[in-house]
Amino acid sequence: MIVSKKIVLIGHFGVGKTSLIRRFVEDTFSEGYKVTIGVHISKKTVIISEDQLISLIIWDLEGQDDIKKTRPTYLLGTNAFIYAFDLSRPVTFENLKSEIHFLKKNYPNTPLKVVGNKMDLVNKEYLKQYNSIFNCLVDYFVSAKTGSRVESLFYKLAIELI
Amino acid sequence: MLNTYIEKYRKNNFQFILIDNSGRVLETNNPILPIKLNNKLQNIHPFFEILNGLLPIKNECFEFSCTNLDFKKKIFIVDITIRTQNNNENLIIIEDLTKHYKNYQLTAQARNESIINSQILELKNEYLLEKETFKNNFIANFSHQLRNPITASIIFSDLLIDSDLNAEQKNYLDIIQSSNKDLKNRIEDILDISKIESGKLILIEKVFNLKKMLHTITAAFKFLIEKKDLVFNFEIDNNLPEYIKGDQYRLKQIITNILNNAIANTNTGFIKLKIDLNYVRAKKANICIQITDTGRGIDTDHLDSIFDRFIKIESETISNKGIGLGLAIVKYLVTEMQGNIKVESEINQGSKFICNLGFKISDYNQIKKKELLNNQLPHLDKKKHILLVEDSGLIQLTILKTLAATGQFYLNIVSKGEELVPNIINKDVDLILLSNTIQNFSAVHLASTVRNLPKKYKKTPIIVLSTKAYKEDLKRFKQNGINYVITKPFDKSKLLQILHKQLK
User: Fold this and answer.
1) Does residue B457 sit in helix, strand or coil?
2) pTM over 0.90
3) Closest partner residue to A77 among B53, B77, B105, by Cβ?
4) What domains sit in chain B, N to C, each tagged with a CATH number?
């Protein structure tokens, strides 16, 4: 039997949420930026083991600069959150702490992965500047463009959801 | 009647689907999504998998606005309402608002792109600013580091020239002195550019003798130009005022930079310096400086960039030892002095720089009197005790040699900041020479410590030897009771003149 789990991607606009999903679901990437309005839903089945499949229903939400503005019905029945931000634009992670606090407070039992995207645009020296934010809050540094660690992010989350 | 119209114009926008508690389709009109009866809605699109969680909750209404449904390669953007009931009949209402949301999408696209672009631009600006600041600080610090060794080199060469040297040694010393001067000028140029870029270069206006300054320049350049087998012509208008108010150092820099540029670019022919009085109006003199050479000239393509930083017109035949900052500094200074400068040039024929500047004219007699007084070293009634606080061995030795040669001073040297106060209290000190680069102590801190001592000691004049002479540094020094600041590199006569003045 295949289990279905709903994963919701949230974060500021332009951080690459849609690109992360496209990389994971279709293994493609486009340089162009197309704004997501409302919600877009994709599905991908992940094989955990020979007899264990999991169907990930991925909700790609319209980017918001404040998580509290998210339409609450979109979050109904969420099994896991991915909070994505753009490593190259500090404005997308300057309120990371309070955004994560909000999610953890309102969805205490729902797994959450904090993901810094666009790793290909920054270097180690740059990341060091934000050590105080990144060290304790970020789970994954990924790049939708190169595909680095995207598969691993969803795969590990899928295992957690079983 | 109204219902007919409503039926006619709205029906295609709405789809009503009746499903049972498992999500199986019982009834549907199909204006939007072609759905077959008895199919489970969850299999139509992943969005409907949400039903598994919602259908068990009875008599509720859930609304999902702006939901993108891609269905058979077509995207519908719809509002979906799910009404659960307790009779195994649940209603799904889909309203197709694709057109409306696509318009909204275009607006959101433009807005987001503009915000992101401005954020990226801001970041780029910050990055460039940081890079520029780093570069300026690096240049300034590096140049400051060179000031101690250059000061020592200049002063020791000056001392050496007075000693008994043979012709060959004098020749060598000439080369050393000329190299010192070159090096000092290069460092001053680099520092000037970094000051210009950080907005710290200020003009210091004082009354000075214009004709005397021009005479000094022509004498020095006659030697330099003729050494290169070129002819030096100069014409100084007799009508020029003798005393004007302006930044003498910077005016001299404008003329010498252009002349140096002319020398570097001319191999045969002449260099001409012509200075005329354009007019006098309301006690202000407007002067025209023209410097003409018969050098290789500047290509029309390069004329616009000749005043840019680090621009040098390359040539294989001419050895140009400058670093391309001279004319950039000239342009900045002329602009700061509210003047103008232009260049006319023809390739292989030569160039002509024309610069117009205005200065206030000053009273001759008063200045003359003051100048006479300034040029004489005041007489000291007895040998004076100088306390030097400096941790650079090179500068210690330089000052020791300079003061010893006069026979008018006793010099006590300490290397550590903490030794300053005991030395003032326990020994005779007429003046303190204080370095601003003492380890662990700033000159400002040491000076304020002295100023807080008992009356007997606290009035001792303090002269700071500084590698930094920015406006804010000078202000800070003054506020903390420092009487005078000598900037490195300095020469023998400057040091002695200031010591005498402060001890008078």
Assistant:
1) helix
2) no
3) B53
4) 12-96 (3.30.450.20), 103-197 (1.10.287.130), 206-366 (3.30.565.10), 376-503 (3.40.50.2300)
